[in-house]
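Subject: Peroxidase structure
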Amino acid sequence: MAAGQKLLSFLLFQLILVLLVLDLSNAEGLKLGYYYKTCPKAESIIRKTTYRFISRAPTLAAPLLRMHFHDCFVRGCDGSVLLNSTKNSQSEKAAVPNLSLQGFHVIDAVKSAVEEACPGVVSCADTLALVARDSVSMIYGPFWEVPLGRRDGRVSLLNEVFANLPSPFANITTLKQMFAVKGLSLKDLAVLSGGHTIGTSHCNAFTNRLYNFTGKGDTDPSMDPNYIVKLKKKCKPADTTTLVEMDPGSFKNFEEDYFTLVAKRRGLFQSDAALLNDKETKAYVILQSSTHGSTFGKDFAESMVKMGKVGVLTGHQGEIRKHCAVVN
């Protein structure tokens, strides 16, 4: 039995290595200024069109960042999260974690503007990566250069979401495994979790921590009891509609407050609290909370570039969709 488990672990490790090598070789097909000759104004058009939306509704930045994250963790950053379901197949959009995604209208408007200038040149996957970056920078977050050249995938399957997308209920062991499979480090896990400094969540993503943590009508002992009292006033046990700020008071501005909350045991999700259960991720939380996020902006930019290279299609793989919600 033990020998069989060792062999299974070894084979899984080998598979992860093969997938990472394939991912990395494709990621080398990405480069800065990719559209310099084929669509020189692409990034400028995308930024201006994105600004039209974010200037009026800054709260859209969080769901657009989340959409990019959800895209990259399932099938890689190939725009598969943007595809609608068809008569024969339900897409990633239909999976429960993606039902609350917002901002598809922004992507459609941006893509439409780019198509007008350069038909059939800029992919939806690149469009989403740039919109996520621009949205964050427009609400006082960091700016990062986005290597481009992603192609759009032709497949989007509902049943691939749960196995690949980290859940708000995940423990540290699961989170570490899910990030490692994507070639992302423990530091990336801590840094990208900091994206929760913006945005809101429905109560049902964390009410188990308030009312029934182990099935005995108890609360999560890893959460500050005073915070539990506050949250109970906003969220009743069966509430599925109320929205709660993930980083109270600064959910519209990108800053380092998230780490201060997690350090005080006030992270909203189990996956936030889980960062304190590993030596390396805990050290990162403490560092940022005690230094007012001294390196968070730079680290977030670096981790976003890294995440944006996960599982990309390049060269002649995939396609350049005309409309992001449907394959050509």
